[in-house]
TrEMBL record:
It comes from Corynebacterium maris DSM 45190. GO terms for cellular component: cytosol. One of its GO terms (biological process) is phenylacetate catabolic process. GO terms for molecular function: phenylacetyl-CoA 1,2-epoxidase activity. This is Phenylacetate-CoA oxygenase subunit PaaA.
């Protein structure tokens, strides 16, 4: 039974004026906003949006890799992949819990995903075609997630920022195991090296798009940055990530299929090619290659898990009906 904090409602103009002043001071001082603090309705709304979609992404993100657990090439790889996929489930539950502190019940958030109303990260619309894709997902997708999530550890909303600290530690393991898969393949047979190269060719562009649309097409960024939810813009984090992965791909002995990718001494960054934003928009609108499969799988899992939710709720109700027995009376 999920208990959701009832957001403080004032309704009284003076209280709202005092609340707004308190909130503004928290943001100005770069302090945390906690669930019981007064907050503007728009701040609450954008956090429910971002945190719940982040949670949806973690849960849907389990699918491409889970498909490879039974096909992992060794017991060691199988154990590592199982641990990673289980971590993602935990990240999702962690983030749903953070979102619930904003006053929206979890089942309402989950229904928004199952109905197709809510978004999840575009990257999980792409299939994991080969074992090398599991490596590319770990290295590039979880690597991009780390680049995006480390600044979120300092998000102004307390439960969100604190949830990121533990999640980022586990993402580091995810990125390293993906790197190791590609490192082994790149040093294997010519076919294995080719498989690794083809995997990073497929995931390079979509991974860069995980950071969101270009800044001039990002309706939420400016306000999110003003409220210290986002610490850097989409393009800033994307650039930071490109600068990070180019030396890494060279160390793998592989390359990115991007003719415009080259060091720009003047900028002190790597220039890189234009991404396919029309594909991105189509994916975000729900027309991604795997969207229907991903949502149908999630709906089926939700239906199959109904008995667990019902049993947990029945147990919680029975516990709630039990008379509270003073433990001293038993002694
Ligand atoms: N996929 C799907 N939708 C996306 C998107 C993407 N990659 N990037 C942006 N969008 C959506 C936004 O949600 C927004 O739509 P909405 O207003 O209906 O929610 C719209 O496109 C415009 O984008 P904005 O830049 O204005 O939106 P934001 O300011 O919210 O920035 C974001 C987008 C950078 C993804 C931000 O929401 C964010 O940092 N979210 C938290 C991180 C996250 O969700 N990561 C997803 C991956 S989780 C993961 O990788 C798991 C790991 O373990 C593998």
């Amino acid at each position: 039974m999920t208990t959701t904090l009832t957001p403080p409602t004032t309704g009284h103009l003076d209280d709202d004026a005092a609340g707004q002043a308190h909130f503004d001071q928290l943001i100005a001082d770069d302090n945390r906003v906690e669930p019981t603090d007064w907050m503007p309705a728009a701040y609450r709304k954008t956090l429910v949006r971002q945190v719940s979609q982040h949670a949806h992404s973690e849960i849907i993100g389990m699918q491409p890799e889970a498909n490879w657990i039974t096909r992992a090439p060794s017991l060691k790889r199988k154990a590592i992949l199982m641990a990673k996929v289980q971590d993602e489930a935990g990240h999702g539950l962690y983030l749903y819990s953070a979102a619930e502190t904003l006053g929206t019940p979890r089942d309402e958030l989950v229904d928004q995903l199952l109905s197709g109303k809510a978004k999840y990260s575009s990257i999980f619309n792409y299939p994991a075609r080969t074992w090398a894709d599991v490596g590319a997902i770990g290295w590039l997708v979880d690597g991009a997630a780390i680049a995006n999530q480390v600044p979120l550890c300092r998000a102004s909303y307390g439960p969100y920022g604190r949830s990121m600290v533990r999640i980022c530690k586990e993402e580091s393991f995810h990125q390293r195991q993906g790197w190791e898969i590609l490192y082994e393949l790149a040093r294997g047979t010519a076919e294995q090296k080719q498989m690794a190269q083809e995997a990073i060719n497929r995931f390079y562009g979509p991974a860069l798009q995980m950071f969101g649309p270009p800044d001039d097409e990002s309706p939420n960024s400016q306000q999110s940055m003003a409220w210290n939810i986002k610490r850097f813009s989409n393009d800033e984090l994307r650039q930071r990530f490109v600068d990070m992965i180019v030396p890494q791909v060279e160390a793998l002995g592989l390359s990115f299929e991007d003719p415009d990718l080259k060091w720009n001494e003047e900028r002190g960054h790597y220039d890189f090619g234009e991404l396919d934003w029309s594909e991105f928009k189509a994916v975000v609108r729900g027309n991604g290659p795997c969207n229907e499969q991903r949502l149908n799988h999630r709906r089926a899992a939700h239906d199959e898990g109904a008995w667990v939710r019902e049993a947990a709720a029945a147990y919680a109700r029975r516990q709630a009906d039990q008379p509270v027995v003073d433990s001293a009376l038993i002694a």
